Amino acid sequence: MNKDAVQHERGPRNSTLRRQMALYFQDSEPSPPIPSVLDLALPKISSTTSSPPRIEAPSQLPPPPFVYPPTAFPKIPLTPPSILLANTETVCESAARLLFMNVKWAKNVPAFTSLSIKDQMLLIEESWGELFVLGAAQFLPPMELTQLLCAAATRDMHKARSIVPEITNFQETLFKLRNLQLDAHEYACLRAIVLFKTAVDSNSNNSSGDSESSGRSVRDVAAVAALQDHTQLTLSKYISAQHPTQPFRFGKLLLLLPALRAISTDTIEELFFRDTIGHIPIERIICDMYKSNEL
Questions:
Q1: Mind telling me which residue stretches traverse the membrane in this protein (predicted)?
Q2: Which of 28, 102, 189, 211 could pair with 131 in a Cys bridge, judged by C-beta atoms 3.0 to 4.6 Å apart?
């Protein structure tokens, strides 16, 4: 379909616009099978499991790629930064594909899909912003977010001014992640750690309007906690084996997690998605994408 119709249309009802955005993602040029940087080996556990799964010794950890089935992903154009800075539309298009890729990644993690659909929907809603920041650091070229701020200012100057401090934090967090030079395995583990969270904002509005996640609390806390613990321990063992001269590396990675959470999803929406979705809550679009049989 015509991408301009997605990026600039403001008239249709919310459901129509969400469908247009979904079709835009589906019409994007397919890429080769899923790269190893998105793979994650986590055991399937039933919703009644309360004890953490067995952890393999570092020498037994499978190197990337890991073991769940390959999936086709839209390509994220790694355009040189100078071109990206000159074309905010290209940046936002890459961001949209990154969002789609994150949702598709979660749907292909067996341990995640073994949870109840309510927990899946809630966790993807709660973690999409952190997953986006990790993906931006891993896949997108370095960019000055102030370029996107200028575009936001043309829509709402007051809103643009209010998010300046968060944009600074966003830029610093991206710099710290890139400076640590994380490998594929480390990024995969961080993704799982932020996805499998047991503490959610119970006071948050259910912006998706989806009854599956309206309770705002994880149903199977024990299963989710076991998965997060397993991932943290796996990451710790992996770092000890691969980076023996960096005893504080594991701690540094975990200390970055609050910084990811501190970047509000409102700021991400304003910078990367406002021109595409208007004022439709992006969580609603994410839930629609996640539940789509086409994903």
A1: none
A2: 102
Q: Could you give the number of structural domains in the chain? A: 1
190 CB neighbour count, 10 Å cutoff = 25
How many whole angstroms separate alpha carbon 227 and alpha carbon 196? 7
Distance CA 209, CA 114 (A): 23
Residue whose entry in the numeric block shows the structure tokens 């341990």 = 111
Single out the residue of 109, 137, 138 nearest to residue 290, CA to CA. 109
Question: What's the one-letter identity of residue 65?
Answer: P
**Positive/negative CA dihedral, 279, 92, 265, 29:** positive
How many helices, marked H, and strands, marked E, lie in the chain?
15, 2
Q: For residue 31, what is the enclosing H or E element?
A: strand 30-33
* Among 196, 48, 189, residue whose Cα is nearest residue 122: 196
pLDDT of residue 294: 61
Q: Which amino acid is at 155?
A: R
Tens-place pLDDT, residues 149-190: 777 777 777 777 888 888 889 999 999 999 999 999 999 999
* Cα→Cα distances 212→21, 36, 120, 216, 225, Å: 22, 31, 9, 9, 20
CA distances from 264 to 55, 66, 145 (A): 33, 31, 15
Residue 139 belongs to what domain range? 3-291
CB-based burial label for 84 (10 Å; 0-12, 13-18, 19+): buried
The token pair that represents 220 in the structure block:
């199977």
C-beta separation of 103 from 295 below 8 A: yes
pTM: 0.71
The CATH number for 148's domain is 1.10.565.10
State whether residue 74 is helix, strand or coil. Answer: strand
